[in-house]
Amino acid sequence: MGKEPRAEATAAAATRAAPAWGRGLDPAAGRGASGGDASGQEVPARPGEGWLERLQALATPLALPTDAAANGESASGVAVAELELAAGEVDAAMALAEPRGERLAAWLLAAWAVLLFRYNGGEVFFVGCRWETDPDGVWRPVRVQLDGAMTGAEVAAAMEAELASLPQAGITVEWMCRELGIGETEERHPVFQATFESIAPEAGDFEAAANAGEGSEDVPAPDARLLWRRRDDGGVAGAIACPRRRFLPSRVGRMARHFERLFCAMIREPDEAVARLDLLGPEEHARLREWNATAAPHDETAPVAALFVRQARETPEAVAVEWQGRAVGYGELDRRTNRLARALQARGVAPGKVVAIAMERSIEMVEAVLAVLKAGGAYVPIDPAYPEARRRFMLEDSGAVLLLTQRSLASGTEANVWDGACLCVEDLETSGVSDAPVDTPASGRDPGYVIYTSGSTGQPKGVVMPQRALTNLIAWQVARPDFARGGRVLQFSSLSFDVSFQELFSTWASGGTLVLIDEATRRVAGALFEYIRDRRIERIFLPF
User: Fold this and answer.
1) How far is CA 130 from CA 151, 166, 258, 412, 466, in A?
2) Is the pTM of this model over 0.70?
3) Which helix (H) or strand (E) segment is 396 a member of?
4) CA–CA separation, 203 vs 215, rounded Å?
5) How does pLDDT run across 318-344, given as a tens digit for each residue?
6) Which of 138, 222, 314, 326 reaches 20 to 30 Å from 35, CA-CA?
């Protein structure tokens, strides 16, 4: 028999290389007595042993980032982005692989699995694997299980072990769906959403191979296919192919570049955790820096209290806080807290000093917060509802120099949980104290507050926030285009929750009115809705 013409041989090889997603779904369809398919290739009459057990626990399907909205439902065909690994890079991979009894395919599959993991976040998934010698329509689903702490070498070893343990004979998609009870879907491949396919050298270009295996009416092609083959010079040529109805060509191009970088990074740093390997190129890093250039001009040396003081000078008659029919203007609140701040300074409150505030929701509570900050200190909120042991721990652990509380609490147990100085705000003598502006000694580097974690995983931990971070937060918030200045804001959060700081100072920095609410009302949805309506609340910070 003479040689096949080159053009015919190439076409035949491309047909063998391209997976027929919908072909061979019926094990009996198109076969002769020998068990071959219509093209004469051998297709196993029975799946190899062990496949059903291997596939019993199919993982959650990969959820790769797509561009479905951008492409539209009418997009068809395959977006193909070619890639290449130089001979030197492949030699370096083989130098790592061969002493460990691993093949190049294990390192290529490892890089592909890590890339899918980095895109998807899922730790267990399947990749459909096929070799250039496999009959048409036959696959070997490879189970990938990894986490970001694994090193590249560990992932490659796991992929080598997985490849080595695969049953000898592959299986068809139809067999997988039937045995596992998986229904076919028009949107996605029913078993695996990514493939790893070696292509014969004579199979032609990757564009032709990818489009020949685009999919069928029965079963759509997987979302992401990695096609590859060795080059004559020892390197690797490959391509990533994705359906255009779900992926823009630009995204597929980025995937190809990410794969190249990831493979090379795994070879250079085989003992580095895969979650730390860099996927991005210089342009992508530059774009991220551009997107993250969100710094807003603000004075990093200014103390937090300056946000309120500036507004009090601009709108002294505007209402700063409302509570139980009482309204206190910015000017009045400024003067009251000036006197209280001086009284606190006389008791040793200064930058770096922490003052505990254990008070029920009231105008006096927000005055205490503002006065401590004006005095230069930092506040640590102590919820009176906390168990006594926790309150004592927070007071001692924070190093508080003073506990500010109320008579209603001090007459009970509040003053008894701690041996340090305790002062009721009602007893603080400020009648002879000046209400002139306070020269706040704190700077942006000094602490503004100490907030304790819930302690749900152990001992509560105190988190110290510097004042410059807090002023930056408020500057960003009030500069947002959707932030309305001068609104009525509900002070909903507990003072022990860090969002309470935003409630107070985003309101005061924008000339708004802080509306307090009692504990009983805030805990009942119906009563809360009525309160919001009756008090004409325009903004509320709710946990979610």
Assistant:
1) 25, 11, 22, 75, 57
2) no
3) helix 388-398
4) 18
5) 999 999 999 999 999 999 999 999 999
6) 222
